[in-house]
Design goal:
Elements: H1 8-35, H2 49-74, H3 77-100, H4 104-132, H5 138-171, H6 177-197, H7 216-227, H8 232-252, H9 256-259, H10 264-289, H11 297-314, H12 319-347, H13 353-380, H14 388-417
Helix pairs in contact: 1-2, 1-4, 1-5, 1-6, 2-4, 2-7, 2-13, 3-4, 3-6, 4-13, 5-6, 5-10, 5-12, 8-12, 8-13, 8-14, 10-12, 11-12, 11-14
């Protein structure tokens, strides 16, 4: 049966992912602003405290993504999504209590609980794309999902900045409603995700007899061993490198509140400008690719990222200059991530896709944790946060050159391996 791009199942997945990403980013933004320099909880986690927030968020993904991938292969992805959204409602209530009680510890606990839920949803979400659209639409579907995700990130960061500002004022003796606002905002978005999850089509399990091995490392080892027999492992490593970059950038931006003398809301708008540009870049890369994979876009994206990271590390501290460079950097990021993400999905066998994507998801959060530690290291060396962009520029240049060489040698192999599967005639 043909599954065109804009079918009801894909639209439901798109909406559910939007609410998921928005709620995650609202909570992460709130906590990041709260512990950043000048925030109401500033100093409670030490210098560069937002780096530890990022690290805490990544740990559940590393430990649980493989198990989540096995569940994605063994169970119905649509039913699993509904169960995860119900769990998210409980966590949103915990977050509400934490901010009202002015408890940083409880709020971090709520963030970790959200990460646990998201670590299960990641492989379900990415695995579901290949089940709700035709193979030759995977690239475009990824571009649209990434665009929707970035719109959600924009929404989450803007709302997170506004709510963080209200929370800071309440913490300083202002309107006490600022203590309630974080939890109520979270709850509204989580309930939205539950409602859209209920509209997902019923999807059959891909491998219902798969045993649920609770040891994540055995699943990782098996998946990595299988992935290493072809180009999939290198594709996954290149894909996860982007999340190292993204994690570091998202920790730098809140410190622009002090570096640029702007408000949390204005810092959120800087993040939003970058996220809009990433979304536009993702859509552009997907449509340029068309029905075929375009590995050649990856080195182009890496070169652009290198250039704009270098400029951001040396740029004058002016909000307009920084906003323009972040936007340009976001635009070229889409050309790096979309071809890799599409190849990752198309190259994964149907019966193992959940485990492969769960493993790749865990790898991405390991890289995100490394990015968080890089940020903490830069801050503890006494350097300004934005100087970390220079480190990112150097690392991206090295990765870009290596990828260009590797992809050039395997371009034809990758394009043939990801060609659309023809439909049988009736």
């Amino acid at each position: 049966m043909r599954r065109p791009l804009w079918n009801s199942g894909f639209v439901s997945l798109l909406a559910t992912q939007f609410f998921e990403a928005a709620s995650d980013n609202i909570l992460k933004s709130l906590l990041t602003f709260a512990v950043a320099t000048g925030g109401p909880w500033g100093g409670r986690l030490g210098e560069g405290g937002q780096g530890w927030i990022g690290f805490a968020f990544t740990a559940p993904f590393v430990l649980l993504s493989a198990f989540g991938g096995r569940m994605a292969d063994r169970l119905s992805k649509s039913s699993t999504t509904v169960g995860l959204k119900i769990a998210s409602v409980v966590v949103a209530v915990l977050a509400s209590v934490a901010f009202h009680a002015d408890s940083a510890t409880m709020a971090v606990g709520a963030l970790i609980a959200f990460a646990v839920v998201s670590s299960f949803f990641g492989p379900v979400k990415y695995g579901m794309i290949a089940e709700v659209v035709d193979r030759n639409q995977i690239g475009r579907a990824n571009g649209i999902v990434n665009m929707a995700t970035n719109l959600a990130v924009i929404t989450g960061m803007i709302i997170g900045g506004v709510v963080a500002e209200r929370f800071r004022h309440a913490h300083g003796g202002g309107d006490s409603f600022g203590f309630w606002l974080p939890g109520l905002t979270m709850l509204a978005f989580v309930l939205g995700g539950l409602l859209t999850a209920l509209t997902l089509p019923r999807l059959a399990p891909q491998k219902p007899d798969l045993p649920l091995d609770p040891n994540p490392f055995s699943t990782y080892w098996q998946a990595l061993s299988s992935m290493s027999r072809g180009p999939l492992l290198v594709v996954a490593l290149a894909w996860t490198f982007f999340y190292f970059l993204a994690a570091t950038v998202l920790l730098i931006i809140p410190d622009y509140v002090s570096l640029l003398s702007i408000t949390e809301t204005e810092s959120g708008l800087l993040s939003a400008a970058m996220a809009v540009a990433i979304g536009v870049g993702c859509i552009s890369a997907a449509w340029i690719s068309g029905d075929r994979q375009k590995p050649s876009l990856v080195p182009l994206g890496a070169a652009g990222l290198t250039a704009f990271f270098f400029l951001l590390g040396l740029a004058p501290r002016n909000p307009w200059v920084v906003g323009a460079l972040l936007s340009a950097m976001g635009l070229v990021a889409g050309f790096y991530i979309i071809p890799l993400q599409s190849m990752l999905q198309a190259l994964s066998p149907d019966a193992e896709r959940g485990r492969f994507l769960g493993t790749a998801n865990a790898m991405s959060f390991v890289m995100g944790g490394v990015g968080s530690l890089l940020f903490v290291g830069v801050r503890n060396l006494g350097l300004a946060s934005d100087r970390a962009f220079l480190v990112l520029a150097a690392l991206t240049a090295i990765v870009g050159v290596l990828l260009a060489w590797w992809l050039r040698a395997r371009r034809e192999q990758l394009e043939l391996a990801t060609l659309p599967t023809p439909h049988p005639t009736d």
